Amino acid sequence: MKKITILLLIFLIINKNLVISMIESHSTTEYSLLQKIRDIRYSFKLRQVLQENYSQKNIIKIVKLLEKGANPNILLSSPYKQPAIIKIITNPDFHSLISIFLSKGTNINIKYGFEEVTPLICATNNNDESLVKLLIDNHADINAKDREGQTALMKACQEGYSKLVIDLISYGAEINIQDQDGYTALNHATCEGHKDIVEILIANKADLNLSLTFLNTGYTPLIQAIMNDKIDIAKLLIEAGSDVNQVSEKNWTALMYASYYGCIDIVRLLLDKNANTTIENYWGHTAKNIALQQSETCYDNSELKSKFDTIIKLIDSKKST
């Protein structure tokens, strides 16, 4: 008996943090000290089994340990402090355990690692539609943010997971949340060139004119589309009602950017939507001035020069009407 007591004390000292978390997680009126010690022991075993390679035998062990009272919020030692639920979600071999972990009260909104990802964000990154639904049905915070302020919807928009974007919106994801740089789901979809997702977001009333706070650039989705050569998306945004005269840092309009990059079709469309040709940027230049400067710099490239000369004519014809 004395030997057992000494071994128990050693175990408790080695696993001090685990002991504290387990004791704090249960009311003393619900559990006897002996039961708490048993739960701690089961939790320690659960952590060991979760860190082993997948096998059906280990799956059975994990289920039994949870049924006996092991803590579903146990943190693994490898990877360091990885929550059990994150391990299970990111490893398809363990997906059969998700429901039992949820039923045993795992923290469904726990954040992990430097990036502070949640289980829902992990499931979204893996484009796992059924798992996303399961987590949301079990009250996962659909608008939870990672370290960069990005939500599951933003991740889906970045990766081009159009079906998941539709699902997340239908589950109640907020479309116009901005991350720490001011990007919305629409900004992410635009920059990555996912036209189908841009269409989905527009149909669900995404704000077309929110500007970026990153380095105070003030870029709108339309301006980003032009800068990133996403011409089809730029056309889509213009037709959807983007403010064609909204300015970015240094007072640049979409027309100025289109003139600078030689986007003839966009210039034409902007002018059709009554883009203001007289607005001056920080340096006092209009869109026409910018096109003239670009034309002069490419004197040895006749094809490129022709683009800027065409833009100049389009702007002049707009002024004369």
TrEMBL record:
InterPro entries: Ankyrin-SOCS_Box, Ankyrin_rpt, Ankyrin_rpt-contain_sf. Keywords: ANK repeat, Repeat. ANK repeats lie at residues 115-147, 148-180, 181-213, 217-249, 250-282. One of its GO terms (biological process) is positive regulation of transcription by RNA polymerase II. One of its GO terms (molecular function) is transcription cis-regulatory region binding. This is Ankyrin repeats containing protein. Pfam families: Ank, Ank_2. PROSITE patterns: ANK_REP_REGION (PS50297), ANK_REPEAT (PS50088).
